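Dear colleagues,

As part of the handover before I leave the project, I'm documenting each prediction I ran so the next person doesn't have to rerun anything. This entry is a single chain, and its sequence is reproduced below.
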Amino acid sequence: MRPPRELHEPREPCDPGGLSGARRALGPHVPDIADRLPVHPALAGLLPGGGLPVGGTVVVQGSTSLLLGLLAVASADGAWVAFVGAPAIGLAAAADAGLRLERVAVVPTPGADAPAAVAALLDGVDVVVLGPAVALLGADRRRLAARARERGAVLMTTTPWPGAHVTLDVRGGSWWGVERGAGWLRRRVLRVRRTGRGAAAQPLELTVEVPVAPAPGERTPVVEPAETTPQGVGSTTGSPGLRVVA
C-alpha cells in the first residue's frame, strides 16, 4: 500500500490535481514489482504472488464481476480506486462487490484529455481502471505503464494492453441462485485464461468462484480459495481446477 497519510485523507473523488499534488509531495518512488495489493483468497490463484502487482499492469476482459471482485479487498483495506472511461461499471455493483465508495473516483468520459487525466490519477490513486472509452496511442500506453511503475500504482484495463504483466480473459461462467425468474444471485463461477509475462508467462486456465454479496439478512458465505495445483485435462474433481495450456 502507498503511504496512508496521503492516500486515505478525505478528498473530493474526482480531483486529479489534488491527488497528483499530494503524490508529488511524497517524491518519486519506484516500487518492487513483488509488492502486491491483497485480493480475496478465492481469486488469489489468478495472480502471481496472490495479489495485484504494485507498479504493474493487469488486463481483465469479459467480466465486470471479476474486475470488481479483484478490487474489493484492497478497497476495504484503504486503497483508492479510480474508474476512467468505464461508464458501464455502476457504483451500485461496485458497492455490492465490496468497494468503499468514499474512496472511489469516477471519470466516465475523459475525452481527448484521457492520457493526462490517467497520468494525474496514477500520481495519487492506488488502482486506476481504464475502460473502453479511453482512447490511447501506443506511446500513451508506454508512458502510462512507466508512470504506474514509478508511482507505485496498479494500472488495470478492460481492453487489450500489449506487454501487460497479467491478462485475465474470461471464457465463460455460470450464476446460481435465481429460480423461476426471482431470487438472489448467490454464486458466480468463471472460467479464466491467464497469460502475461514474468511469472505469468506460462498460460493457465483456471476455474474460480467470484465472491458475491449475500442476500439481505444472510451471513456472508465462506468461499474457499481457488485450487492452485495442476489438474489433468477433463478432471472430474469437485474443487476448482487449474491446468497448463499451450
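The CA atoms of residues 37 and 151 lie 14 Å apart. The helical segments are 4-7, 16-26, 64-76, 91-97, 114-122, 138-151.

All the best with the project,
I.
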